[in-house]
């Protein structure tokens, strides 16, 4: 595979098309067949070609750009992150190219490759796939900061993490302290790093209390508010429903909280991992594990621009503290729960 400074003309020759066609494929223009696009993309990959959008942007006076790849812009945590990253990037004269990939590994790969081909100054990304080894080719060329979860394999860039295990452990112990032993957990896919750490913290706290975990109270693989609502319905219909619920992210909480209110079950203790709009205005106000997405975004952006300015990436994960914010819902004692 050629690893030198391949040109657009090299790609055109390798693909057997005109330079204009290569340019149309790179820019996503219409009028190119899918077969031709695949042919050109294969040549781009083979030659490790990187169109110099950076140089072109300087010629036309456009701002430089950083790429931001998030799991879901509809999630309050990631939406706040995107806003703060953009604010700080603009202060440095950079625009932000932000997109979400859901839980689709293939979309992650394609989106990141597209951003690298545009020669962005750097990347901030929340990895969703189980393998980011495709970024090895960009090592030493494009700074990358991973947020919320580490890369797989490790060592592909700096990482900004929260103490998900410790915070979930503390939240579970908080509910246990109020007398609850039948504590349900509703969360995302167990292969997601943050979910796995939070489930591990929950299980650790339950084991330490010698209560043990009722496996029928653990509902993971929940990817939307609607699915979280259904999971809660199933739990409440069970013969021995939970008296307390821990939600592993704000997206799940946006399904659980309305369901508790709609069913008149605000007597059930509840803690949300991650804050969300109006959570402190409800009755009872929602007790949360505050992840502070603004602090995460600031830390990631500062690390990225440090590298853009020429400094080496921080090797050890940048760990941010998470704190429990008691507001009412997480402090409901077992004695107050109705045995409906």
TrEMBL record:
Pfam families, alphabetized: LacI, Peripla_BP_1
Tagged with keyword Transcription regulation: yes
GO molecular function: DNA-binding transcription factor activity; transcription cis-regulatory region binding
Coiled coil: none
InterPro entries noted in UniProt: HTH_LacI, Lambda_DNA-bd_dom_sf, Peripla_BP/Lac1_sug-bd_dom, Peripla_BP_I
SUPFAM superfamilies associated with the record: lambda repressor-like DNA-binding domains, Periplasmic binding protein-like I
Keyword NAD: no
Residue span(s) of domain HTH lacI-type: 6-60
SMART domains per the UniProt record, alphabetical: HTH_LACI
Keywords (A to Z) from UniProt: DNA-binding, Transcription, Transcription regulation
Protein's recorded name: LacI family transcriptional regulator
């Amino acid at each position: 595979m050629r690893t030198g400074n391949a040109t657009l003309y090299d790609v055109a020759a390798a693909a057997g098309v005109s330079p204009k066609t290569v340019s149309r494929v790179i820019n996503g223009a219409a009028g190119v067949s899918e077969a031709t696009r695949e042919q050109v993309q294969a040549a781009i990959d083979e030659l490790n070609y990187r169109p110099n959008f950076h140089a072109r942007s300087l010629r036309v006076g456009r701002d430089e750009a950083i790429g931001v790849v998030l799991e879901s812009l509809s999630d309050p945590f990631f939406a706040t992150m995107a806003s703060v990253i953009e604010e700080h990037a603009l202060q440095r004269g950079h625009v932000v190219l932000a997109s979400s990939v859901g839980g689709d590994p293939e979309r992650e790969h394609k989106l990141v490759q597209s951003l690298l081909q545009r020669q962005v100054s750097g990347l901030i990304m929340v990895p969703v796939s189980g393998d980011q080894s495709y970024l090895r080719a960009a090592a030493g060329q494009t700074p990358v900061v991973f947020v919320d979860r580490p890369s797989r394999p490790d060592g592909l860039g700096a990482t900004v993490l929260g103490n998900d295990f410790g915070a979930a452990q503390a939240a579970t112990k908080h509910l246990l302290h109020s007398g609850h032993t039948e504590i349900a957990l509703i969360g995302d896919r167990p292969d997601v790093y943050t979910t796995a750490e939070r489930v591990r913290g929950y299980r650790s706290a339950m084991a330490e209390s010698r209560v043990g975990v009722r496996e029928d109270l653990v509902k993971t693989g929940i990817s939307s508010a609607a699915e979280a609502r259904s999971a809660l319905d199933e739990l409440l219909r069970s013969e021995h429903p939970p008296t307390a619920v821990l939600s592993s992210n704000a997206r799940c909480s946006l399904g659980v909280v309305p369901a508790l209110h709609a069913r008149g079950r605000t007597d059930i203790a509840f803690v949300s991992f991650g804050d969300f709009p109006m959570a402190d205005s409800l009755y009872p106000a929602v007790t949360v594990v505050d992840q502070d997405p603004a602090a995460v975004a600031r830390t990631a952006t500062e690390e990225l621009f440090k590298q853009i300015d020429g400094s080496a990436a921080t090797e050890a994960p940048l760990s941010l503290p998470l704190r429990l914010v008691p507001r009412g819902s997480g402090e409901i004692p077992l004695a107050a729960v109705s045995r409906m």
